[in-house]
């Protein structure tokens, strides 16, 4: 259909219908037809449409805002499909649209306007200006339009500042860019028009810039799109206002002399106090004064004085906007980087003192993590010839001033702990150092004051936090489990006091890498830090970190002696003073830890009575004496212990990273460090153990061993030497015992012969009656040896099982063949044999009979001798004899008062019993010896000890079977039933916020009681009473974990005694609180019977 026919048949009737009956449905129909109509072919028709709509809009003004919004939307559609080539038409449209939202001469927008009306009005204004030709805009942007543009700008600013409708705010920002001719479709090369626009609307800059910076710095809940649009508008508007209009200056490429003059000018203006028109216009004044000021500014235009004063006033804006270079959003950082780069490229001549601020931002963002931002800023710096000479940069002449500014404000920024500020400052310092020439950096840091300030700023940035978790220790024997490198490299002890984000830590590390890769500077910084270390400086942990990053930051290909700094660091870190620090506080004088305490009261087991008992516990008089006798300088307070633990972790951390950096050349240090690392692996402190784990895995990775066990076995001779040296120097040494404990856990059976003599020495030391301080260490060694034997035994059994038993099969085949051959012999052969036997019997003489009697007597004597030989037991294997010796040695520690001794001794016994499973004659006498101390421990009410006692009882039942049946029923089972009965009342009334020791004991009893019954073959009333007691845990009031274990108990018991399990649960099935779990048990029993 032709455009004329479409207009006549579609658009015109719909328009007339709306004009006659102004209804929303008619207007929607008109909107649809306008979207379909092609205005490009018949441009004359837009007048026929716009004029009636504008007149109708005047009639509807203030009557129906919905219809007004729809009419304005139709006007917007028409304008979007044509170009306005008449300035009077443009001005008329702007006035009519503005009238809908603002009274003429009013200071504010009309009240009670709908958001839809505001939005479509803003869109109409923007569309009218966007679709105007450049010729029309050149005529429009004159002094005659200042008032109209001012009314529009004030309306837009009011919408941006006050409205919550996000789409309206974004549309207002886009319309603002259209008015300043800086929208995406504008001709940025049209210098004349841009200059004319700037000369017309520059007087409104104070209010506009204030609102834009306020919006861009507003809360993050506004959204990334709105904030980035505000930054985009701010940058483009400032650019068009401060852009120099002279063609010569625009085409000219600044050389270094001109930029140096700009920096000199900026440095001079920075310290001068000022009072600008911008500031005066921002203050509240009388209306006449403001109008007079605006008139003067309009008449004088953008003079050199105006640029200088406005630049001074904008200093606060540029300073506040600097935080955007550290924003989390890549989109916001990109817009801000583009703003800074554009202003430096196009407006450098008019920036004044703000040039340095923008230059600092561009340099900082040239190191941004986003490649696009980094490339944009680097390109800008290159274009401005800041890096024109490889040996000298523009920074060099002003390095002192810029460096002093950074170091002066950096400590305050770091201590405030605001991540955005820290990132902005650190990335600026990184960019500054990276763009500084090597010669100038050397001159700068040769000044002692500058070197000290830089080092102290870096040290304060990585200030490590001391916290109570550093003193967390493992009570029981820890089995060394080495994680992979990625898992162990989490470095949980590196918790910084001021830096809260990984990106800031990475920037500090990058700064150290820059210093490390600068020849001469790296050694200068190292010497200063080593001097601080010699003074036992309180920041030695932070110093080690800085030295590590500087030393390992040196590129290997860049320097032949790349490992020189790391060698210095290793020599320092391997000094003995860093490896023998007290890791536990010893200031707990007023309350002895070895006093007997009862953690359970019959009425209400729990923590309350324990707390009362501790609070009412008497203080011995000798405590006061001990407290006064100890020299205060020798005490290890909690704070000292935390520092020592952290320092030990940092030492291991640094050693591990140095090993990784060194690679296979690190084997030269393995003799000096391996035993130190293994000693820390055995430490009960959790954090030190993790750090030692990381260090050991790093050494393994550096030396290219497949597993840590290979590393240990390869250097067993080194370890043997150190262990013998330590034991000769001090036979009761705790360190040697701890190292041996780890070696036993981390080595295979091939390393055992090398360590047998050392183990025997430790065993002999443990046998001495005066030994008391190192009992825990000896017990840990025994436990490690037992676990080592258990692993060796399991490995050997697996290897034997994998070998096919071909010999036994061959022997069976040979035996079968012999029987077949015998059965196939002919009968004649048998008869001949019988005849020969008879002949020999008849031919015997009395002499022969006497000889036969003598021969029979000799054979009888030989047989009896052989029988006596069989009664002699074969010698036990060496490892079984050592297990027996350990049991006899450990048994006496079960009865000690110290709880730690008891726990370690019980764990050793738990590991011993399974190893003697194949040697019943050795096992049962030892079980008899164990029983009395074990029963004594069962009478103790300490849940931690009872936990191990029941585990040992379960192991004894598994391997000794009925041998301990009667003893168990008489001595142990009654107390366990009584405990479960009483504890069931507590667990139903208390909420288990954390797993207490009592609760853990309930768990282990419910989980293993079924196995105990089956192994001991308990029957009769005893098993009935046990089943009745555990049925209390089927109640829904019990914790879910206990309920589930009770259900599993009856399912296991059903396999041993099905009727009893069924009857016991069935009796509880009719009780409401037991019904669910009882049905669950009975259902599973029925399924197993089908």
Automatic annotation (TrEMBL):
Annotated ranges, domain TTI1 C-terminal TPR: 781-1057
Region (Disordered): 834-853
Domain of life (superkingdom): Eukaryota
Cross-referenced Pfam families: TPR_TTI1_2nd, TPR_TTI1_C, TPR_TTI1_N, TTI1
GO CC list: cytoplasm
Record's compositionally biased regions (Polar residues): 839-848
Residues in TTI1 N-terminal TPR domain copies: 10-369
Alphabetical list of PANTHER family matching this protein: TEL2 INTERACTING PROTEIN 1 TTI1 FAMILY MEMBER (PTHR18460), TELO2-INTERACTING PROTEIN 1 HOMOLOG (PTHR18460:SF3)
The name this protein goes by in its record: TELO2-interacting protein 1
Primary gene name: TTI1
